[in-house]
Amino acid sequence: MSALIRLAWRYLWAQPLTATLNLLLLSLGLAAISFVLLVSEQIEAGVRRDLAGIDLVVGAKGSPMQIMLSGVFHLDVPTGNIPLSTLKTLRAQPLVARAVPLSLGDSLRGFRIVGTEVSYLDLYGASLAQGQLWQAPLQAVLGAEVAQRTGLALGAEFAGSHGLGEQGDAHEGDAYTVTGILKPTGTVIDRLVLTDLASVWQLHEAHHGSAADAAPEDEAEEIARREITLILLSYRSPLAAISLPRWVNAQAGLQASAPALETARLLRLVGTGTDVMRGFAVVLLLAAGLSVWVALLNAVRARQADLAMMRMLGAPPWRVAALVGLEAAILAALACVIGLALGHGLCAVLGQLLADRQSLRLTGAWFSLWELSLPLVAASLALLASAWPAWRAYRLDVSDLLQAPR
Prior knowledge:
2 domains, elongated, two-stranded antiparallel ribbon, alpha+beta, about 55% helix, single chain
């Protein structure tokens, strides 16, 4: 059998340009399928992780999609601010199990600085790897990816930049102190800098020249004056999903965004692109199958004398047919290895590009169970492409070839 495989290998590369073209088409088709599987599964898994425990996002009037993207995935700018008193009102609602406030606006080298409460960490099961949580204004806790990419350690100081870009005006007068670093969670919190709400208020009052040194005010006056950006809600019962968004939208200046609905819309948009990629991959595979079929058919015709000699030396018909099938099988095996390597490599490159933009996390190390079907797809395509040429080789009449005029 090993001799037959070696002979099939030599026959395959007897026409290197044709073999390379067929290998390229098969590899690109399999790589496209692998890439689509890896990206779509990682996006869906990331969405599920980042939505953990968040049933509703409340923000200023505007696009629900924008509110969801800015409040859950931190990929967009928020629609505006809402009164801090809204938080107290929502926490008093019997249908609300948990309400977590967020104050946004600044960033550190492109990583968003989020003013919030400790309960935000509970949404993602985040815990400290080093240090402690913030105890006072202008103390910050870094997500695992932020700490890794910025190189900041415990006790380091940094100034936030206004806005989400790295070109925003820096708050040079007031620097944050790193008091803690979180363990990696694989969620959006890895890409965030967390602090308390008072830090955000203090910085922006100073930035806008507000009366930061004014006389102390009582709690009611402070709540009436303060603003936050978003509130993440968790429902106490399924009934809240029906009544609470309607109630929020009826309030002046408030907009409710249901992450489950908005992410379903988002994934449908992403699904359109993946469907196009899958269609492109199928076209490539069909073209590769047709090309392999033509190449093998021509090879059988060109090697009739060689195949007849094998028959005369005692090779049974099935062995001659198996030689043709082995050529296609070797080609499919090579294409499968190259295609999977290309798919994972492209996913790793895309993941690095997204990481540089503090966006979704993708990795080439992800493995999809559906990828186990790719060798079967490649083998099936090789079998179909080689079936007719192998049958022609099997039916080869040695006596006719010997009697044919030279």
